[in-house]
Amino acid sequence: MNATPLKTRFAPSPTGLLHIGNVRTALYNYLWAHHGSGGFLLRIEDTDATRGEERYTEALMADLRWLGLAWDEGPVSGGSLGPYLQSQRSATYETFAARLIDAGLAYPCFCTEHELKLERKTQVAAGRPPRYSGKCRALSPQEVDARRARGVPATLRFHVADGRTVEFDDKVRGPQRFATNDIGDFVIRRSDGTPAFFFCNAVDDALMGVSLVIRGEDHLTNTPRQILLLEALSLRAPDYAHIPLVVGSDGAPLSKRTGSRSLAELRDAGYLPAAVNNYLARVGHSYDAQGLLSLDELARQFDLTRVHHSPARYDETQLLHWQREAVRAISTEALWRWVGADVSALVPARDRDAFIDAVRPNVTFPSDALHWARAVYADEVTLTHPAREVIETSGAGFFEHSLSAVGQLKALDFSALAAETASRSGAKGKALYQPLRAALTGELHGPEMAKLVPLIGADRLHRRLQRAVEAAAAKSRHVNG
User: Fold this and answer.
1) For residue 433, how many other CB atoms are within 10 A of its CB?
2) Which residues pair with 341 in a beta bridge?
3) Cβ atoms 247, 314 nearer than 8 A
4) What is the per-residue pLDDT across 287-324, written as a single tens digit (0 to 9) for each?
5) By C-alpha distance, which of 335, 341, 392, 343 is closest to 364?
6) From CA 289, how far away is CA 325, in angstroms rounded?
7) What CA–CA distance (Å, rounded) separates 210 from 86?
């Protein structure tokens, strides 16, 4: 008998923008599929018409494309097992719900939410697991018809037989056992006629040939219910791997309410896809390789046995680390596009490669590149307060020596400028290099001056040193009264 082909899936509900937690779930499914030369399926679980919105469907697909997580089967990509939007699969769900009804495994439940709440409260007070008592299961066909005739709304519940144990081997957490006595009959169709998650999610996984479901551990208790459903429908259940949740600094699961940023917000802030992928692949999973990896390499080295069992804590410091690594690795052409139009408007085309080479180590986001473009090419450089203080402390004489040194240079060479200034002023070390950097860039730290000075050019060099002379002299006059 042939083994089931590997197919994973990501099945989001379009109720909002993708956040770190659900993006990581998508990434893990993609990585495992590509690790094993399998398929990656995207399914949109949009059966809840009151919450799902088409704009969120389009947004989440754009997010996945931005990360490079191309799905082999699903919306737009197509496939023979669609449609891949659950809102278009109502007839399929009705067919399988009817099978359960005909087999006596599903029945209408007329209990109100108030009645159910009281029932659960009583059970918890008695020290029992909160589960539906099954009282509507005992209604006669005549009683059911009478309630329907009165227009009493009804859900559809799946009958869970007592006295059984549901077992499965979780690919992350190991062997799992659940007693059906603790589960109780659960809803598979809401009173408005839409299918519940337990039902349509399980049916679609089976019909679409999903072989492994990688999802958050908050779904662990859903799994025995879905296995029971698929067994009752004679459908093949996939394997399951439940991964720990991503939590914030307070230990609570990440969500928009707890300050988690959406992927769109990260993209708008200037994060690179490689940074997000490399960070999230390591949130709750161990890699031997410490450096930045391509998406293909992340997949090749991904292993479910390396998924951690404890919650994964979101750490933006680590995300920033991978952002810096991604900026270092990106091609000049791609980095130029990433830094944006404001930078390209300032930097002459002839200087593009030299500018990128000079500032890349000091760039984390496009705003950093814009800062250094202004520092190099603006007619007048903006001095930070610490830079102004260094200029004023160094004195006008130091910068007059620098101006004289410039006149002796045969080329725009910062080392030669510093050496000639040192010879004339007697300054050395920090007292030499820091005031020169302050005057020429407005900062005390930044890219290598040897790479910046040729870009600044002779005219701006003169003007900035002259301005430093004037600033230091003005300060001296003020101090001396």
Assistant:
1) 17
2) none
3) yes
4) 999 999 999 999 999 999 999 999 989 999 999 999 99
5) 335
6) 14
7) 15
